């Protein structure tokens, strides 16, 4: 597992539940260290052990913890770079949804050795969509539910999301756009400003 993913999990736990929780999780996981390095690659089993220990420590299902991680990745100030990468997908939530097919490629442009599972959006109507998440990264579809929910807030859209489970080998998320301009979205400038 790429160190950036493990580092994001570490950042999420420390920012949300505190450093003491992270230390308990790393101890329970028997990692032998407490800090992940962002540019190293770790055995996938380490990440699985960390998520199992975190779920046990919080007494919450892993799917919920992964979803909270997805929300954190978009909404926390520590992760502004990822939010910007996602917001470059379009000026509306629907445009953002259509940009998800290219997310893995955009991530690879930023970090060449980070490979995310493919995403495929199906537009069933102007307000109904299905997002298929290819296998390859445990918990990825649950993380994407959190990302989709946080991005809806970011755009000011009101959506209903549900994880539909597996269909034809991919996890499927149903997205119902209730209202595209439900609330004022978070401020976003495409161009960076100095000063």
Which helices and strands appear, and what pairs or packs with what?
Blueprint: H1 3-17, H2 19-29, H3 44-58, H4 62-75, H5 80-87, H6 93-99, H7 103-110, E1 119-123, E2 128-133, H8 140-155, E3 158-167, E4 170-179
Helix pairs in contact: 1-2, 2-3, 4-8
Describe the structure in your own words.
With 195 residues, the protein is of the alpha+beta class. The protein has 8 helices and 4 strands. The chain starts with a helix and ends in a 16-residue tail after the last strand.
Q: What is the tally of helical segments?
A: 8
Biggest beta sheet summary: 4 strands, antiparallel
Structural class: alpha+beta
Global morphology: globular
Question: Can you give the helix content as a percent range?
Answer: 40-55%
- Strand fraction equals 15-25%
Distance N to C terminus = 37 Å
Q: What's the gyration radius in Å?
A: 17 Å
Low-confidence stretches: none
Strand order of the largest sheet: 1-2-4-3
